[in-house]
Write a structure and sequence with these properties.
The chain has a domain of about 160 residues. It starts with a helix and ends in a 5-residue tail after the last helix. The protein has eight helices and no strands. It is mainly alpha-helical.
Length: about 230
C-alpha cells in the first residue's frame, strides 16, 4: 500500500523538476539574448561616441587651420602696409641726410600710410593677440609722431626708422610662427599702456623713444652698425 502511493509522488516530483529546468533554460536563453542585445547597444553607442569625438577633432583641426591661414594672410597684408610706412618714413630723412638736399618731402603720405596701417590692423584685430596689438600700436604711434609737422627729422632718424621696422617685422613673424621665431636684441619701444599712450600723444611718445634709441650708444655708433640694412 505504501509502495503504490510512493510511485506517483516520485513521478510528480520528476515532472516538476523538468518544468523547473525548462523554465530556467528559457530564462537563461532570454538572459543570453538580452545580454547580447545590450552588448550590441553598448558597442553601437561606443562607436557612435567615438565617431562624434573623431568628427569634433577633425572640425577643431579644420577650424584651427583656417584661423592660422587667415592670420597668416592678414599678417602678410599688414606687412605690406608696414613696408609703405617704412618707405615713406625713410623719404623724410633724405633732406636731413643730404641725400636729396634740394627737396623736402611732404609728410602727408607718411601720415596716410600710418593711418592706413592702423585701420587695417584694427580691422584684423580678432586674428591677433592683445600683446601683439599693443606692441604694434606703439610702433605706429612712433611713426605717427614722426609724421607730425612739428617733429624735427634728423639724419639719425633714418637708422631709427630702419630698426623700428625690423622690430615690427620681428614681432609680426613671432605672432604668426608658433615655432622657429628668433629672439630680438635690438631696440624695443617704451612699454607704456595704451591708455598712457593716448594721454601722452604720438609726438611725445616718438620723442621719448627717439631719445631712448640714441641714449645707449655713442653718436653715430648705431647708424654705422645699421648702415646697409633695410626694412
Amino acid at each position: 500500500m505504501n509502495e503504490s502511493n510512493a510511485t506517483p509522488d516520485k513521478t510528480g516530483t520528476l515532472e516538476a523538476d523538468l518544468i523547473k529546468i525548462r523554465l530556467e533554460h528559457k530564462l537563461s536563453v532570454r538572459r543570453m539574448v538580452l545580454d547580447r542585445i545590450l552588448l550590441g547597444l553598448l558597442v553601437g553607442l561606443a562607436a557612435f561616441v567615438a565617431d562624434l569625438i573623431v568628427e569634433k577633432f577633425k572640425a577643431n583641426i579644420s577650424e584651427s587651420r583656417f584661423f592660422l591661414e587667415q592670420r597668416h594672410a592678414a599678417a602678410t597684408a599688414f606687412r605690406k602696409k608696414l613696408a609703405l610706412v617704412s618707405n615713406k618714413s625713410l623719404q623724410q630723412t633724405e633732406f636731413a641726410c643730404q641725400l636729396d638736399p634740394g627737396r623736402k618731402v611732404s609728410r602727408v603720405p607718411l601720415k596716410q600710410a600710418v593711418a592706413d596701417a592702423g585701420d587695417y590692423l584694427n580691422s584684423a584685430s580678432l586674428l591677433f593677440g592683445k600683446a601683439y596689438l599693443d606692441r604694434m600700436e606703439r610702433v605706429l604711434n612712433i611713426f605717427g609722431g614722426a609724421a607730425a609737422e612739428k617733429t624735427i627729422i634728423k639724419c639719425e632718424h633714418r637708422f631709427f626708422f630702419i630698426e623700428l621696422t625690423n622690430y615690427a617685422t620681428h614681432i609680426t613673424r613671432e605672432e604668426v610662427m608658433s615655432e622657429g621665431a628668433t629672439s630680438w636684441s635690438g631696440f624695443t619701444p617704451e612699454p607704456v599702456t595704451i591708455a598712457a599712450l593716448e594721454k601722452m600723444g604720438s609726438i611725445e611718445y616718438h620723442d621719448l623713444n627717439f631719445r631712448k634709441w640714441l641714449t645707449p650708444l655713442k653718436p653715430g655708433a648705431r647708424g654705422s652698425a645699421d648702415k646697409g640694412s633695410g626694412p
